Amino acid sequence: MNLVIAVDGPAASGKGTIAARLAAHYGLPYLDTGLLYRAVGLAVLDAGGDLGDAETAAKAARALDLASLSDNPRLTDRGAGEAASRVASHPGVRAALLKLQQDFAAQAGGAVLDGRDIGTVIAPGAPAKLYITASPEVRAERRWKQLTARGEVIAFDDMLDDIRRRDARDAGRDDAPMVQADNAVLLDTTDLGIEAAFDAARRIVEAARARAGI
């Protein structure tokens, strides 16, 4: 059995940092699936399209190339995050990106993927599943510090509103909503630094490996 590690959770929970660290620790390829949706959202905006137009968004998703994710600094800004959350609500977008993500998860040896529906939709058979979360206030503070350090100007209260709005949209969509998989282990990082959070995640994965005999 391949070691596939599914890492899900809301924005700024620490899942991306933890997933990247797990990938490096186990020598596995890593995919931040949120970048796919951010790239689709930016493609729609750059073409002058409407993020609420399902067909326009799906067309952008069908044209997406993984190679385009590696050198676009705009993918990490606030606007890209909001655009990603909006286009991700379209079933056609999720359908267009499904095989790409599943193929990544199915490669020999295993992989680490993080997102909102990895353990429930993309890789439901993954032997190791984590659901990373933290309080909205802590997540907003993390994201606010990250953005302001890059020179973006945003009030903390606006950042907190963004976080809560994205949570509601991601958890409330009809197609592949953000939800903890039944067999995923919950890891709350509200009071954890990155080293403590990574160590807890590594121990969760090791327990899953032992159960699966990997």
UniProtKB/TrEMBL annotation:
Alphabetic keyword roster: ATP-binding, Cytoplasm, Kinase, Nucleotide-binding, Transferase
Q: Name one GO molecular function term.
A: CMP kinase activity
Q: What is its EC number?
A: 2.7.4.25
Annotated residues for binding of ATP: G9, P10, A11, A12, S13, G14, K15, G16, T17
Where is this protein chiefly located? cytoplasm
Cytidylate kinase domain location, by residue?
5-200
- Show the catalytic activity: dCMP + ATP = dCDP + ADP; CMP + ATP = CDP + ADP
**Matching InterPro entries:** Cytidylate_kin, Cytidylate_kinase_dom, P-loop_NTPase
Q: Which Pfam families match?
A: Cytidylate_kin
* Keyword Transcription applies: no
GO terms under cellular component: cytoplasm
Subcellular location per UniProt equals:
Cytoplasm
GO BP terms, alphabetized: pyrimidine nucleotide metabolic process
- Similarity comment: family membership: Belongs to the cytidylate kinase family. Type 1 subfamily.
**Name assigned to this protein:** Cytidylate kinase
User: Whose protein is this, by species?
Assistant: Brevundimonas naejangsanensis
> The organism's lineage?
Bacteria, Pseudomonadati, Pseudomonadota, Alphaproteobacteria, Caulobacterales
